[in-house]
Design brief:
Glutaredoxin, alpha+beta, about 30% helix, globular, 6 strands, two-stranded antiparallel ribbon, 4 helices
Length: about 160
């Protein structure tokens, strides 16, 4: 039975980014966009990452342009925007699709594991994966990264 560790992304810098690199660490996978009303969530994601990084949490930003074309830039544009506007230090992937037939295989797997709650309906949807690579839960786009439901789930996963 596959786990998240069986999947790989390409990093925002173009290097392979296998999720097996994060074995033993919970990972909050978040589809992101630079021109969305929810874009300020980058600040909360970075705070969550800095607060829990030493304990093992990884936040993984996954840029996606499937929602109203709100991530139109190149990977270099996205990386620059995230660094200069929000001091993003957590890992980011290259742009991918996160829903429908052409979605990245991780997202198809997450839907198989968690059902419809794992399918992003908008930017900044969050999927928490445990250190064992199993899908734990998903959070909707409007759930703030520092919401107690997320921090409690992260603490439990740590």
């Amino acid at each position: 039975m596959p786990t998240a560790h069986d999947f790989s992304f390409t990093s925002i810098d173009g290097a392979p980014l296998p999720l097996s690199e994060f074995k033993g660490k919970p990972v909050l996978v978040v589809n992101t966009a630079s021109k969305c009303g929810l874009t300020p969530q980058y600040e909360g994601l970075e705070k969550l990452y800095s607060d829990y990084r030493a304990k093992g949490l990884v936040v993984l930003g996954v840029p996606c342009n499937q929602f109203a074309g709100q991530e139109p830039g190149t990977e270099a544009d996205i990386k620059s925007f995230c660094a200069t506007r929000f001091n993003v230090d957590f890992p980011m992937t290259a742009k991918v699709d996160v829903k429908d037939a052409g979605c990245h295989p991780f997202y198809a797997w997450a839907e198989d594991e968690l059902g419809a709650s794992a399918v992003p309906a908008w930017n900044f949807h969050k999927i928490l994966v445990g250190g064992d690579g199993r899908a734990i839960t998903a959070f909707g786009s409007r759930t703030d990264p520092l919401d107690e439901s997320i921090t409690a789930a992260v603490e439990k996963a740590l």
